[in-house]
From TrEMBL:
It comes from the Archaea. InterPro entries: ArgE/DapE, Bact_exopeptidase_dim_dom, Peptidase_M20, Peptidase_M20_dimer, Peptidase_M20A. The keyword Zinc applies. Keywords: Aminotransferase, Cobalt, Hydrolase, Metal-binding, Transferase, Zinc. It comes from Thermococcus celer Vu 13 = JCM 8558. GO terms for molecular function: hydrolase activity; metal ion binding; transaminase activity. This is Diaminopimelate aminotransferase. PANTHER family: ACETYLORNITHINE DEACETYLASE, ARGE_DAPE-RELATED DEACYLASE. Residues 205-316 form the Peptidase M20 dimerisation domain. Its cofactor is Co(2+); Zn(2+). Belongs to the peptidase M20A family.
Length: 421
């Protein structure tokens, strides 16, 4: 077994140029969700299928979640199986996502344009390079190296390349679990290489609950010189946001050292209003909160407190206009993910990953929790232990996002070891 890991590791190193070429090819295709006004993952999935069409996988399956907003009306997920020698050994899933976030402010991309990847100083720059291209390619070539050498792993490897991770997984992992529950087994081992740290020593076993909600305030637009004749929606929204921010931080203030940061977070992130002139007191205002909440708290309680405060603010600013009572304050939940029970730090997948990191890097890994959401949570909800791990410089979602080539190669070795051990 030691010999297999060593030989496969050397083969992965020999495949570095091909890995970089594959990553570059995939970055060129903007697989951005229809939620942002784009076409989705179809073209990227087709390119990926083309790349692996002659690889000796035992089975490759495509599952198309219907989404009329997307290209060809589907959000594809690909499962590629490479069978192991031991049919009784638990299978290992390595799940990566094809979708990427929008590029953001193009003026801040100073190294290259988002979808024109370049290789520079041992890094591949481009949107989606690190999130999640680096790990997607690493997982591919962990298996490719074994194929090239004619080595069968101990356990069956299932590479899953899924859609819709960046906007909630409704058309990705969640859809697969709902529509194809037969794919998953309770004794499966699951690696989600979509989070980590710079030296690859952090294994995520727990996540905070996620709650995104939009607050829509409607007042009555009026000239700013005569505010008494209307109701300034900005003012109502600012009052509400200020008091909500204080309320949530004070009431849900517990700390848990498993997580980084150790407390719940409540961040106002987006603001929108129709006023396009300094002398208009607007009649509408929208804001969005991104909340990452420790698992000990109930999201219904957080929403209940938010609604209760909204009612108090309504009363504070209450005015009648032609029989209509204003302001209106509407709370809309954009995303909700109630944190499942954490993966047991002593589970088989954690043990294997620790062992692989010790063998290959001579490092002891630590376990912990994060505030970001990954689709490991969906497996934990099914009672399937899942870990999130990768070696990342954490440039995801930023301008000049990059993947470090060494990280991609070294992580591929660890992924191969998980299948071989």
């Amino acid at each position: 077994m030691e010999m297999d890991i060593e030989v496969v590791s050397k083969e992965i190193e020999a495949l570095e140029d091909e890995m970089v070429e594959t990553l570059v090819e995939l970055i060129k295709i903007p697989a951005i969700s229809p939620d942002y006004g784009y076409e989705g993952e179809y073209d990227k999935a087709q390119r990926l299928l083309e790349i692996i069409k002659d690889w000796p996988f035992d089975k490759v399956e495509v599952y198309n979640a219907p989404d009329e907003r997307a290209k060809n009306g589907v959000r594809p997920s690909i499962l590629a199986y490479y069978h192991g020698r031991d049919e009784k050994a638990p299978r290992i899933w390595i799940l990566t996502h094809m979708d990427v976030v929008p590029p953001g402010d193009l003026s801040r991309w100073t190294v290259t344009e988002p979808f024109k990847p370049i290789i520079k100083d041992g890094k591949v720059y481009g949107r989606g390079s690190e999130d999640n291209g680096q790990s997607l390619v690493a997982s591919l070539y962990a298996v490719r190296a074994m194929m090239n050498l004619g080595i069968r792993p101990k356990r069956t490897v299932i590479l899953a390349f899924v859609s819709d991770e960046e906007t909630g997984s409704k058309y990705g992992v969640e859809w697969l679990m709902k529509n194809h529950p037969e794919l998953f087994r309770k004794d499966d081992l699951v690696l989600v290489p979509d989070g980590g740290n710079e030296d690859g020593t952090f294994i995520e076993v727990a996540e905070k609950s996620i709650l995104w909600f939009r607050v829509r305030v409607r007042g009555k637009q009026v000239h700013a010189s005569m505010p008494d004749k209307g109701l300034n929606a900005h003012r109502v929204a600012l009052d509400f946001a200020y008091h909500l921010d204080r309320l949530l931080h004070e009431k849900y203030s517990a700390r848990d050292g498993l997580f980084e940061p150790p407390e719940s977070t409540f961040e106002p992130t987006m603001v929108r209003g129709p006023a396009d002139s300094p002398n208009i007191a607007p009649g509408e205002h929208e804001l969005v909160f991104d909340c990452r909440i420790l698992p000990r708290y109930n999201l219904d309680d957080v929403l209940g407190d938010t609604e209760k405060l909204a009612e108090e603010v309504r009363e504070r600013y209450r005015k009648e206009f032609d029989g209509e009572t204003l302001p209106e304050i509407e709370i809309e939940v954009l995303q909700r993910l109630d944190a499942p029970k954490p993966t047991d730090p002593d589970s088989e997948i954690v043990r294997l990953l620790r062992e692989a990191l010790k063998k290959l890097r001579g490092r002891e890994a630590r376990v912990g929790g994060i505030g970001g959401g990954t689709f490991a949570a969906y497996f934990r909800r099914l009672g399937i232990p899942a870990v999130v791990w990768a070696t990342l410089d954490e440039t995801a979602h930023q301008p000049n996002e990059y993947a470090k080539i060494d990280n991609m190669v070294e992580d591929a070795k660890v992924m191969a070891a998980l299948a071989l051990l």
